[in-house]
Design a protein that fits this description.
2 helices, globular, five-stranded mixed beta sheet, Neuraminidase
Length: about 375
């Protein structure tokens, strides 16, 4: 049964420190703390081993946030991005062996000859954590597109074997999602240095890009491995309704735009069918839309009742969605902050608390503390 835990608007507007009054949700009671302010459209975040945080800002800046919430000046060495439309500096991920290599992976929109595209780069974080060095391109998810600056996807996840998974949007050109000679509208799988693993599903297939792991995606901004099953979960924006949670399988076609639960923005259905032979069905669908961005599995100690949950940052209606799961199934849904504020992503801190990135020009990071 769907229940909504609504926070008072004053809770979100109050500055700094712990806010007034505990909030009781289905499986946890928490307070909201404004952990950091002064960010512009924060998009992706990771915790460093020392407990500080790196946060991307969509206009093209990377910041370090101290354990006290202080926001640094922009880091040096960040690659230039095409910060137009939905593009900019988007996701960030640390290499699994970051403590040794200092490698940081960034997903961005890039302007190249012929238009713009989704790009994955790697760099090293300086010992002082104030500069990126040795920036190197891993892949350009081409071909580039001259028109529009929409649907880049751009979420990064490391698999248990150390390979990189990268989501790419279809750039609002629907046919690209079904084309196997095109890297848009896909989930890609690569080695850390950009090579194609020999067991990728389309290796050796004429006319197909070997980097592709799955296809038929619209605008996937959520990507995370289920720590209990090892499977890769993905969230993608539908149009007007039809947002999806998918379990990503090797070589599978997820149907966009051939099948969809969504409608055109002016009313009619995208497709007559919501399912078809040879195409994977989503495990969870939202109609009407919530516009899910980043997704995060919760396995921290601060909120024992939330263990096993998948959190999804929601854009429209703004808020935070918590999905209960059983293996690779969604078993329930709870909505927090509903109708109050849009979130872009959330991360679990070393302290087990949940840190929420607000999708605002005057962006903040809110922290949920046990009450």
């Amino acid at each position: 049964m769907l229940r909504r835990a609504l926070l008072a608007l004053a809770l979100l507007a109050a500055p700094a420190a712990a806010q007034e009054g505990p909030v009781t949700s289905e499986r946890a009671t928490f307070r909201v703390t404004t952990f950091a302010t002064g960010l512009e459209r924060p998009w992706g975040a990771v915790f460093l081993p020392d407990g500080t945080m790196l946060v991307t800002e969509r206009p093209g800046r990377l910041r370090r946030i101290g354990t006290d919430g202080r926001v640094s000046a922009p880091l040096g060495g960040v690659p230039q991005v095409d910060a137009n439309g939905q593009g900019g500096l988007l996701d960030i991920a640390l290499a699994p062996d970051f403590a040794r290599t200092r490698e940081v992976f960034l997903c961005q929109s890039a302007l190249v000859e012929g238009g713009s595209l989704t790009r994955l780069v790697v760099a090293r974080l300086s010992p002082s954590a104030d500069t990126l060095t040795g920036v190197r391109r891993i892949i350009d998810a081409g071909p580039p597109q001259e028109s529009g600056r929409l649907h880049y996807g751009c979420r990064i996840a490391f698999g248990p074997e150390g390979h990189i998974f990268l989501s790419t949007g279809e750039r609002n050109e629907r046919a690209r999602a079904q084309r196997l000679d095109d890297l848009a509208g896909k989930v890609l799988r690569l080695t850390r240095d950009g090579r194609v693993p020999p067991d990728n599903p389309f290796v050796g297939h004429a006319g197909a890009r070997p980097e592709i792991w799955s296809y038929g995606h619209r605008h996937p901004q959520g990507l995370a491995f289920n720590p209990w099953t090892g499977s890769l979960w993905e969230a993608e924006f539908g149009p007007r309704g039809g947002d999806e949670i998918n379990v990503i399988r090797r070589g599978a076609n997820y149907g966009w735009p051939v099948v969809s639960h969504g409608r055109e923005y002016w009313g009619p259905r995208i497709s007559r069918e919501v399912s078809a032979p040879g195409m994977e069905d989503p495990i969870h669908v939202w109609v009407p839309s919530v516009s899910p961005s980043g997704i995060t599995f919760y396995d921290g100690a601060a909120f024992p009742g939330w263990r096993g949950s998948l959190f999804a940052a929601a854009q429209s209606t703004p808020g935070l969605v918590r999905l209960t799961t059983d293996g690779d199934r969604v078993t329930g849904e709870e909505r927090l902050f509903w109708g109050k504020i849009a979130f872009r992503h959330q991360v679990v801190g070393p302290d087990g608390r949940l840190y929420l990135l607000t999708d605002e020009n005057e962006g903040r990071i809110l922290r949920l503390d046990p009450a």
